[in-house]
Amino acid sequence: MEVEGEETECSMILLPLIGDRVMIFDVEDVKKLRKLGILGVLTGTLPSAPQQNVFHGIPLELGIYEVIWLVENGYGTIVDSLKMHEEVEKQSKSEMSRQNRERVIGDFTHIPNSPAVNSVHSNDPVGAVGLREFIVSRCPTNEALRALLTDYFVFRSVRQNGYQVMPGLRFGGDMIAYPGDPLRYHSHLIVRPLRGPVNLLDIVAGGRLATGVKKVWVIGGLLQEDKTKIQEITIEEESIDQILESEVKPISFSIEWAGFG
């Protein structure tokens, strides 16, 4: 997907998996993600102002839908952070030992900077985690897996329409969509994926809230044919990759409050 006015060409981005979260510590990778329209959430403190929580710094935490989108479109590779760093440490020590570059100063060991380890930044990096393995690890049950896939297809549809997405909890939705970089634009849409019957009170509340903050309330779901495909998927099967590659096109409706009464 190409977004107008943005560069989308970049090298493969390593997505370090720490526990069950993907955290980006490399500022250059954060820049690449920004160019791709992947925003994530900054979770670190600023060294110059550690006693406040208004402005944040790296690491950048990526949501599960953003990770799936990056891997699916060939922009990133999920790697086990522990295995990757163990390999970097092992190869770095081997290289320094070979060249006798390690020297001891008093009680400290001085390790000079070493070039990037080629095997870590290759197309098949050490500790690579498959997309299916990553998804299943976040979904302990079949119901959770089906809900995740439904939400992801709505997320993917919003991205395909040129919007950049951030979490939408503060506006009562699952996502908020921006027409460009959030530093330049206000959000236009509050997006709520649907997995079951529609509650009319939720529609009224969402429409009134969205209109009050000058946005549009969007509800999105899947057609019956696509729902049937997802209902047949289980965490034990290999069909997760196939459903991600299929042309699932969610249907969506926008709601605005007319202001009567």
From TrEMBL:
GO terms for biological process: tRNA-type intron splice site recognition and cleavage. GO terms for molecular function: nucleic acid binding; tRNA-intron lyase activity. It holds the Pfam family tRNA_int_endo. Residues 15-80 form the TSEN34 N-terminal domain. One of its GO terms (cellular component) is tRNA-intron endonuclease complex. Keywords: Lyase, tRNA processing. InterPro entries: tRNA_endonuc-like_dom_sf (IPR011856), tRNA_intron_Endo_cat-like_sf (IPR036167), tRNA_intron_Endonuc_cat-like (IPR006677), TSEN34 (IPR016690), TSEN34_N (IPR059049). SUPFAM superfamilies: tRNA-intron endonuclease catalytic domain-like. The active site is at Y178, H186, K215. Residues 150-226 form the tRNA intron endonuclease catalytic domain. Belongs to the tRNA-intron endonuclease family. This is tRNA-splicing endonuclease subunit Sen34. It comes from Pichia sorbitophila (strain ATCC MYA-4447 / BCRC 22081 / CBS 7064 / NBRC 10061 / NRRL Y-12695) (Hybrid yeast).
